[in-house]
Amino acid sequence: MFYDDNVILKNTTDGSSDEYGGYIPGVETTETFVADIQPFSHELMLKKYGYDMQVTRLMFCEPNENIKIGSIITFKDKDYLVVKIPWDDDHYEVVLDDV
Fold first, then answer.
1. Contacts of 47 (CB under 8 A, 6+ apart)
2. Domain containing 88 — which CATH number?
3. pTM as predicted
4. In degrees rounded to 5, what are phi and psi of residue 15?
5. What is the count of structural domains for the chain?
């Protein structure tokens, strides 16, 4: 497998309140890494993994504990939402959908 696509991972922590009740926004973190991103569909998701959900891309990459459901992946100036991580053994298979 060739990891030749540059992607950006974005995660945002939950906001909180200070001692006066004021809102403190969450912190956004970013990380750049390489992956292989392929077109994917609802039909392929159902056939390959058995999940009935809307998806548009499948990303293959090295294991990365910062990739979580709800993370945002930016690829070719477009944002995708991580909706499922059905395989996370020696490599990650991460299912993405349009934001």
1. none
2. 2.40.10.270
3. 0.84
4. -75, 170
5. 1
